[in-house]
């Protein structure tokens, strides 16, 4: 089993900045600890802060449609940021952002972020590339939801979560997974049981352990590798 890389000292987006720009930007950031379940943004509400996770990770979900449950469309960890509409000059959130993995993050006031964006060409370039990656991932996620079976999608989500949690163990109930994947709970139970029977994961009372990382990558749909390749091409 391959262990995940240790959590970086800061956010990978900010690490991509030239030293001078990064140090200046970091001087305006406030280190915070995000709690599990903490809501950072609501659809239609003004964006008050931007967040750059370092050890935490955040789930982005749609607004409920026709009184139905919402759907996860993004998972943000140390590779990204929350509050990206500000890069496009939009100060209202389209998505619900809730902390799924507690931990540290860097936070900046939205107004200050916009001023920094105007001053730093390097910051604009990095974040525009990131937005390109996000748009590609959103398109990939739509296709994944439509064409891939639940077991493959669950394996992909577990890998994405492990990457951002920087741990082989994390918490995710069947009810939560059904909500994230937009399927019935029985479908998640069947898929999780299949992965467990293949000795890829261990699952008990909402506690997930990745047992065989390589095997789980083989069980996941190709969207996982595609997302990683897109990020690496544009951001590294």
From TrEMBL:
<dbReference type="InterPro" id="IPR014710">
    <property type="entry name" value="RmlC-like_jellyroll"/>
</dbReference>
<protein>
    <submittedName>
        <fullName>Helix-turn-helix domain-containing protein</fullName>
    </submittedName>
</protein>
<dbReference type="InterPro" id="IPR000595">
    <property type="entry name" value="cNMP-bd_dom"/>
</dbReference>
<dbReference type="InterPro" id="IPR036390">
    <property type="entry name" value="WH_DNA-bd_sf"/>
</dbReference>
<feature type="domain" description="HTH crp-type">
    <location>
        <begin position="148"/>
        <end position="214"/>
    </location>
</feature>
<keyword id="KW-0238">DNA-binding</keyword>
<keyword id="KW-0805">Transcription regulation</keyword>
<keyword id="KW-0804">Transcription</keyword>
<dbReference type="InterPro" id="IPR036388">
    <property type="entry name" value="WH-like_DNA-bd_sf"/>
</dbReference>
<dbReference type="Pfam" id="PF13545">
    <property type="entry name" value="HTH_Crp_2"/>
</dbReference>
<dbReference type="InterPro" id="IPR050397">
    <property type="entry name" value="Env_Response_Regulators"/>
</dbReference>
<dbReference type="InterPro" id="IPR018490">
    <property type="entry name" value="cNMP-bd_dom_sf"/>
</dbReference>
<dbReference type="InterPro" id="IPR012318">
    <property type="entry name" value="HTH_CRP"/>
</dbReference>
